[in-house]
Amino acid sequence: xxxSAPARVRVGTVYTGRQEDKNITFSRVWAMxxxxxxxxxxxxxxxxxxxxxxxxxxxxxxxxxxxxxYYTNDLDPASPAKEHMHALDFAxxxxxxxxxxxxxxxxxPYSFRQISEHYKALGRKATALDTSIAFxxxxxxxxxxxxxxxxxxxxxxxxxxxxGKRRGFxxxxxxxxxxxxxxxDTVVVVERKVIHSDQPAxx
Length: 203
Prior knowledge:
Blueprint: E1 25-30, H1 41-50, E2 58-60, E3 71-72, H2 87-96, E4 101-106, H3 112-121, H4 134-144, E5 147-157, E6 169-178, E7 186-193
Parallel strand pairs: 1-6, 2-3, 2-4, 4-5
Antiparallel strand pairs: 5-7, 6-7
């Protein structure tokens, strides 16, 4: 075999992941899709395991109509959320209280197209910044310091990125909710904050 030949991979070899991945609980379930994430059966069950009854000391910046969190916000003025402002303004308001929270539900629009459609339905025009990766990154960075060490972040979307280690979180559970056909899975990522907000998060 020449030096330039590709290495041969043995059939049946299983990648077991890095050590840090081995403590993550993985599950895959099937459920009918629902525009309101928290009404999907397996997701509602997962939330009952983490969010206390009444949602005490939990926040939700994209609450919609069925959030179990206590401190809720949604841009739609028709929603039952307590506040109706941009997520970054909601974060700024909470920071003024100097409070730290037990957990956050992070369920924003899952794609740039969904962002545009949501804004249009509310009579707003989405900016280039709104339909960029910065839409998600700025919000995560704004809320991460509001979560107390040991607190929980539960993110929903089409990927498993979550808040991430650079913001001081580690993944403890991932649930894939399949919806059948050509529909994307809903990916639920549960993370725990493991460092203080004034400590370097690392890479």
